Amino acid sequence: MLKTHNPTRIFQAESLFEAALNLGFPAAVWRLPHSHEVNLLISLQDGMQRRLPDLEELPACFVIHPFEPLESGEAFVLEGDLIFTFSEDWSCKEVAGNLGQEHPFVKRLLEKADEMSDENPGGTSSWIGFALNPEVDPEEKNHFEKAVTEAVAAISRGDFAKIVLSRTKTLTYSPEFQFFKAFKKLCVAYPSAFVSLVNLADRDEMWLGATPETLVGVNGEGTFSTTSLAGTQSALENGALVSAHDIRWGQKEIQEQALVSRYIIECFKKIRLREYQERGPRTVRAGNLYHLRTDFAVNTHDVNFPELGTVMLKLLHPTSAVCGMPKESALRFIKAVEGYDRSFYSGYLGPVNVDGESALFVNLRSLRLADGLATFFAGAGITEDSDPQREWDETEMKCDTLLSVLR
Ligand SMILES: C=C(O[C@H]1C=CC=C(C(=O)O)[C@@H]1O)C(=O)O
Question: Which Pfam family name is an example for this entry (predicted)?
Fold first, then answer.
């Protein structure tokens, strides 16, 4: 067991992450909402494991799950062979893990990290953002707007009450693009988001994001939490921040968010759980946007339901904040009409059993980095009152959450 590190050794988060990347080890670095600490988990394995997302059974790990459930019901798991905790000033507070410092892979990683920090002491090189500004692809826009029109027609026919349709936006990035600095910039820009950078080594891709949406949280006191998040408005007017008090919501957004809350309450009903606290909806800011949010909480000790997190995770994903209601018909429509594979976008990700807590977030406001291409993903909730152009503009604003910081 590697616990509380040797004080003579200086662990540098950026060099460790770069070393994992270089050696092909899966790794995840994250900052929880409103936290001043950053965790870095490195899995010294060949690739990700596939395990059931059973929060009571899993070891300390980082879980990432695609939008579409795998037939086996499994999720991808990065095992916490090494977990570093860094303070706000990036000094290393603690190292935990299940392998000793003498393990050959640990030695290799630490040596590589030393090499990397010698090459780039203090990581001072200036910021290099994305290389190309994209033109809006008219075909992509037409495709999305046509899908919205079809969805509105399907809602009027009664096929479903709400659906979330999404799209991508692709930019190039140069080989010098600094992944870790991008993560740091997002941490500073979005203190209330879950900010993460995940290296999926066996797929040669990374995911970077700053999501505002908790899917399932189980804290050290055994409190289960989830949120209903929907409805979107710009938080900026002529470049200045609009106060939350001045935000008014229309019928469309109120209904859209109420459907997500109803979906969550139906999940509680399925397991006959009535003892949940509900707070909201209220206006919350997520960077450049405002949303409506309702928070749900349950004390799992009081209801004698220690496995509530696992049970609700299975029932909730994908919620109607990313899929639709009813779920099955919305999912069929998405597969038939959206026209691309969402992959990990609108799936979920986060640490499980790290420091006695699990915190899984919906993978929103995120992008995939692979082969010099940065693919941004964004969706919008469609109801009977949706206007295709406005929904497109909403997805542009959602892409801007990351783009405005990383450009
Ligand atoms: C699907 C996304 O956002 C969801 C979360 C908040 C608001 C949403 C909306 O207003 O449509 C979406 O349901 C996304 O960011 O890609």
Answer: Chorismate_bind
